[in-house]
């Protein structure tokens, strides 16, 4: 590539708060025909709201929240941020924790006040052999109808409760989707580790072509590879630990402010301002660069 054209494009990006760590990715962005978006923390805001707190097996609401917040206190995941904010609102003192195990895509396994606490998806509970009560199952189904994410809290070896998480879509996302389509990006999809129901709901709301739900980290990367084998040039946009392998595989990878450091370290390009607002401009800058090189 003509180095001068590339340098001036890089300077323009810097001016707009777009950190380009790989010039080749900037050149490629104009030729992307597929964009895969992570859901939680990428299309949705960094900190969701905790809605309903449901209890089971005789545990109290503030007990469930206390254990959940204790387990999440060292994490920066959107689910962790939401739970910690809620526990602060309720005036809960965070308990001490023992060694923490994070099962990416599932949840957390940790000792809190000498009790074993597991916080994560319904699938995680199933994997761990923790039965949901009928009330919890009912609340889970109801939340899914609304498109909410549910996080289960196991206290000892029983389900203690569940937290409903309501994540707002970032305000610029609708325009970004329309803008990408107007710029000739043919395929747009969501790829999420979250449950099918909230993922489908958001995909429909945004008019995405496809969605992939309950996807584990290595599977996110496999989807990228599969699409590439079909001849697509793929951009992956993500914020989480569970996105890092896919970010590595994609032709162009983008992360954003507030993302986990493994995501921003891996991505070719990082938006330094809040949200995804610069995505279409990035495409335009790349197109312009292509014209100047040709
Ligand atoms: P996405 O791929 O949409 O960003 P997540 O990163 O939220 O999805 O991860 C998928 C699922 O893994 C979550 O819906 C949740 O069930 C579980 N999970 C991930 N991190 C945590 C956490 N810190 N606490 C509890 N559950 C978690
Ligand atoms: Mg995410």
From TrEMBL:
Domain of life: Bacteria
Transmembrane segments: 1-14
Localization per Swiss-Prot or TrEMBL: Cell membrane; Membrane
Similarity section: Belongs to the cation transport ATPase (P-type) (TC 3.A.3) family. Type IB subfamily.
Official protein name in the record: P-type Zn(2+) transporter
Source species of the chain: Methylococcus capsulatus
Boundaries of the shown chain within the full protein: 476 to 769 of 875
